[in-house]
Amino acid sequence: MASAADNRRGIAFMLAAVTLFVCNDTFMKLAREVYPPGQALALRAAFALLIGIALVFAAGEGDRLTMALKPHVVLRGLLEAGGALTFSWSLGLLPLATITTINMATPLIIVALAVALRIEAVGWRRTLALLVGFVGVLIVVRPGTDTFSAATIVALISVLLTACRDLTTRTIGAEVPSTVVSLTTTILVGLVAAGYGLTEIWQPLWRIELVYLLLAALLVTLGTFCIISAFRRADVGVISQYRYAAVVLAVLSGYLVWGDVPDLVAVLGMVLIVASGLYTMHRQRVKPDSNLKIDRKQAVATSADMKTGP
């Protein structure tokens, strides 16, 4: 388990990351009103690449660029590329608050994947919380209604890819700098987006939306660095709950920029997802503490037996 100082550091990085990502999503959604998803993502990645290279050398970590070829670093970048492209595609068609809320199912997917891969065991309480969270997702996406569309399905695929990305982040060794991981991700996102862009009709570059993409590149680069740093040393169960601040920020941004106001049904789904995620994270913290207490009791009992033995 991480130390209290590492967890506080992780929480700070997580809050910074979600704020930067919501602002990035806002500028990307504005740009998507003109640019198709592949073009928008490729242009953002081009700007982000320049920023990422500058960050690597500013941190004095240029000699570690070869670590970008490590399999887990590449895998994380590919998962991020798939998640970013699917997210960008659906971002242009869904309200910001809706797609952000769907994305908040990521921690629930992480736990479900951890169980499926036998990385972690889950009791009945967290199983029930997961079911409640998925009910919340169903309420938000509303299958079978007019609000359910291909964009909703693509957004759900993005959530799955993001969850796999976060699990992969935990497997990257501490010797690989976050700046190198972030730069690798940016390059792979750009390549995948440019490849997808070959199927699109690109729009003229020189317009105000290009400035939005430049700002988005700066925000997403800093946000990626923060999210990588958050997961590197802190306990996932402690810091993951703070990503739910993004829901409030997205609702506020959606209202201020587009005048979007979620209806009561959507709000109910948001509440269920957030509540389920928070409880799941709470149980992840409680369980290790309980096991630690049990281990201490067993150690005390063993010590007493040794003292009173023959």
Task: Determine the mean pLDDT.
Answer: 82
| Extended strand count | 0
CA-based gyration radius: 21 Å
Characterize the biggest β-sheet.
none
Low-confidence stretches: 289-310
The computed structural class is: mainly alpha
Order of helices and strands: HHHHHHHHHHHH
Quick synopsis:
The chain is mainly α and 310 residues long. 77% of the residues lie in helices and 0% in strands.
Give structural notes:
With 310 residues, the chain is mostly helical. Helix content is 77%, strand content 0%. It is built from 12 helices and no strands. The chain has helices at 4-32, 37-58, 71-91, 96-103, 106-116, 124-141, 150-169, 178-197, 208-233, 236-239, 245-258, 264-308. The longest helix has 45 residues, at 264-308. The chain is globular. The chain starts with a helix and ends with a helix. The model is unreliable at 289-310 (pLDDT under 50).
What is the secondary structure topology, with strand pairs?
Layout: H1 4-32, H2 37-58, H3 71-91, H4 96-103, H5 106-116, H6 124-141, H7 150-169, H8 178-197, H9 208-233, H10 236-239, H11 245-258, H12 264-308
Helix pairs in contact: 1-9, 1-11, 2-3, 2-8, 2-9, 3-7, 3-8, 4-11, 5-7, 6-12, 8-9
